[in-house]
Amino acid sequence: MKKLSYTIKDIAVELGLSHSTVSRALNNHPHISQQTKDRVKELVEKSDYRHNAVAASLRNSKSKMVGLLVPRISMYFQSTVITAIQNKLHEHGYNLMVCQSNDSPEIEKELVNELFSSRIAGLIVSTTLYTTDFSHFDIFQRANIPLVFYDRVPKSHPAHKVLGDDYQGGYLSTKHLLEQGCRHIAHISGPLTCSIYRHRYAGYQDALAEFDVPLDPALVHFQELSKENAIKASEAVFALPVRPDGVFAGNDTTAIGVMQHAKQLGIAIPSQLKIVGYSNDPRAEIIEPSITSVEQFPYEMGEQAAILMLDLIMDKISPGRNLISLTTPIELVKRQSSCLQV
Amino acid sequence: MKKLSYTIKDIAVELGLSHSTVSRALNNHPHISQQTKDRVKELVEKSDYRHNAVAASLRNSKSKMVGLLVPRISMYFQSTVITAIQNKLHEHGYNLMVCQSNDSPEIEKELVNELFSSRIAGLIVSTTLYTTDFSHFDIFQRANIPLVFYDRVPKSHPAHKVLGDDYQGGYLSTKHLLEQGCRHIAHISGPLTCSIYRHRYAGYQDALAEFDVPLDPALVHFQELSKENAIKASEAVFALPVRPDGVFAGNDTTAIGVMQHAKQLGIAIPSQLKIVGYSNDPRAEIIEPSITSVEQFPYEMGEQAAILMLDLIMDKISPGRNLISLTTPIELVKRQSSCLQV
DNA sequence: GCTTTCTTTGCAAACGTGTGCATGCGTGAT
DNA sequence: ATCACGCATGCACACGTTTGCAAAGAAAGC
After folding, report:
1. Among B182, B200, B264, B196, residue whose Cα is nearest residue B230
2. Burial (Cβ within 10 Å: 0-12, 13-18, ≥19) of residue A163
3. Beta partners for B326?
4. Are A150 and A161 in contact (CB under 8 A)?
């Protein structure tokens, strides 16, 4: 009980065996007698010996760790996805190494290399808002290590993807506002370098076109979705000669910011202004009036990404050229902010 | 460009050097000529070689990975702490392996062993609600691997700790309600197996005593802090012959549940009932009326835990005897739910 | 009793990196 | 010419585990 670390050699000498026998006993190798296995496992149980995953990983060139690279851990959507991924991986004996890029492409690139250094079994990624060059991820594909993108995915980069139906989210939100009578719908969303915002914008455009409502560039804002930016954009659109009667926001933080600003201006919601947010943040149903939002089912999305990753690791998927792209459905949750009657 | 993994040997033969020279060149060893270092680094730059942290970790018995074990990732408090820890560790070249126990002591024990298996440089833990036996953590101390608990910490187990001032939080919350005139203050909180709830309860008791208000056992509920449980406890206390005029809730989810239930009963807030929550969840300031809550500064707490961990790893602060216990202050954020005037 | 077969175990190499020690080379002093 | 010395590099082993192969012993068939 005085050593700092114990190895299979220690228990081998203790039992008068070779370390190979101990290794095989612990791995339930069929050529080892039951008696020996029992002796080994009994001693291991009551000792401070713990399997050294580092040594095993080196020897096998196999790892039980999956990397996860996200822009920010503490956003509601992301932390729920992480929860799901962690639970699902743990079910299958895998661990998770979590890194955050803080939406900086430089940090992202650095972390990709660090994660590769750790010889992880696979990498799951949601990119930064500004990642347009995806070549730093290619090392994983060249090394034949599974790589799965989710939510924020590369534009035209060949890779496995799990994504929400952002086009449909944008389309349904805008259509809903149009059906509620809105004709001047502002769109305050994130930078178009990012896949999800491009798709939502496309849905917004198509819905407008369907209702023969012309797109007014003055009503469209794209920037990082902070509360401050939300208020700035809000000030801009409410200063226009024709005030908007609807807002489709890129997330719920923005929707909340717009709503609070509108309240200050004395604009009645939903009668004078209707608002739709995105992601169905817990705050959306708590605020008054409650905010209509697009549910993305982040837990299910995380599970899908994890399952896809596990399948890729286990080689259950033909390793050839077939790239998998899963789209998880969204659901428009209608609340008071956009409907006179709910 | 056809191999799957490259090693220092590959670039050694490419340059006509030995792998030891390459290793030393990459580590900036002083005995290697600048010319050789440049040649090595140039080739490494343009190749697919990446340092193998697994092999280095085995050779050095040193790791650049810190483990984090939390009950649930996606709670606001925890995900903020994780964000802080990850950022701080990354500043110093360390990575983070995140596991969640889902508040199950069995899973926690299992994960502690898995984390040890990965030969992490240190472990940061917030325990489950029900962990009363902490012996599964001892292996880290016996192996001289830094171990830091935060928030939910062991009762009388010798270990480094970073904790919020839960006693003060409980005391100030209750005192505030008393000062606002409440005399029948319900306390709906988490299981007393968990340190933080014990401390908050002690603060609650002391504040009551200070105002000569007797503790009414019927007003005190301890269970897992879900919304469902909040409503159940709420129903119980509002069915009492003397209705409570104040509620000190163990978290904001509970405070929200109580508030919504009270609204349904037609109880006016804050005039007939005053409510204080805990953790200052983003929802607390958004709901109407906004909820008074205890800010725990989770980002600062995470940073402190990470800094302490890094100090332990680097300085090897004599890990046996001097146990460090840091208490981060709290702040009562007064809002409409508890004050007639704000 | 001898050979074959099966069961159980040990030996030694390998994974990729880091490092103590030895080695070789060039320079300058004696 | 010899020696000492500093500099740059190579050799070989170690970290702890897994695994192909060999081997020893027992059981079984002739």
Report:
1. B264
2. buried
3. B162
4. yes
Question: What are the φ and ψ backbone dihedral angles of A6, each rounded to 5 degrees?
Answer: -110, 145
Q: Report yes or no: A291 and A337 within 8 Å, Cβ to Cβ.
A: yes
Run of H or E residues at A154: none
Q: Do A51 and B256 touch (CB under 8 A)?
A: no
Torsion angle, alpha carbons of A111, A163, A128, A135, to 10: 60
Nucleotides of D under 7 A from a protein CB: 7-12, 14-20
Closest nucleotide over all strands to B18 (CA to C1'): D10
CB of B89 within 8 A of CB of B66? yes
Chain A residues whose beta carbon lies within 8 Å of the beta carbon of residue B87: 100, 102
Residues of chain A with CATH 3.40.50.2300: 64-164+298-328, 166-296
Q: How many angstroms away from the CA of A326 is the closest CA of chain B?
A: 24
> From the alpha carbon of A10, which nucleotide's C1' atom is closest?
D16
Domain with CATH 3.40.50.2300 in chain B: 64-163+298-327, 166-296
CA distance A203 to A171: 4
* Closest residue to C19 measured CA to C1′: B20
pLDDT in tens, A143-189: 999 999 999 999 888 899 999 999 999 999 999 999 999 999 999 99
pLDDT at B112: 98
Mutate to test the interface with A, among B60, B70, B75, B95 (most CBs of A within 10 A): B95
Cis peptide before B319 (omega within 30 of 0): no
A12 touches strand D (CB under 7 A): no
Write the residue in A73, A95, A117 that is nearest to B118 by C-beta. A95
Query: What distance in Å separates residue B113's CA from the closest CA in chain A?
Result: 7
Q: Which fold has domain A64-164+298-328?
A: Rossmann fold (3.40.50)
Of the candidates B112, B86, B88, B80, the one whose C-alpha atom is nearest the C-alpha of residue B99 is B112
Topology of domain B64-163+298-327, per CATH? Answer: Rossmann fold (3.40.50)
Given a contact cutoff of 8 angstroms between Cβ atoms, the answer to whether B75 and B44 are in contact is no
Element (H, E) at B69: strand B65-70
Chain B (238-297) residues lying within 8 Å, Cβ to Cβ, of chain A: 256, 282-283, 286-288
At B138, list the tokens: 């001892």
Report the protein residue whose CA lies nearest the C1' of nucleotide C13: A59
Give SS3 for B117: helix
Contact flag, residue B19 CB and nucleic strand D, below 7 A: yes
| Confidence check: pLDDT of B341 > 70 | no
Q: What is the pLDDT of residues B19-43, one digit of tens each?
A: 999 999 999 999 999 999 999 999 9
Domain A166-296 CATH assignment equals 3.40.50.2300: yes
Helical (H) or strand (E) element with A44 = helix A34-46
Window 6-65 of A, Cβ < 8 Å to B: 48, 50-55, 57-58, 61, 63, 65
Q: Across the interface, do A51 and B139 touch by the CB < 8 Å criterion? A: no
Give the residue carrying structure tokens 């430089």.
Answer: A106
Q: pLDDT tens for residues B256-279? A: 999 999 999 999 999 999 999 999
- Does the pLDDT value for residue B301 go beyond 80? yes
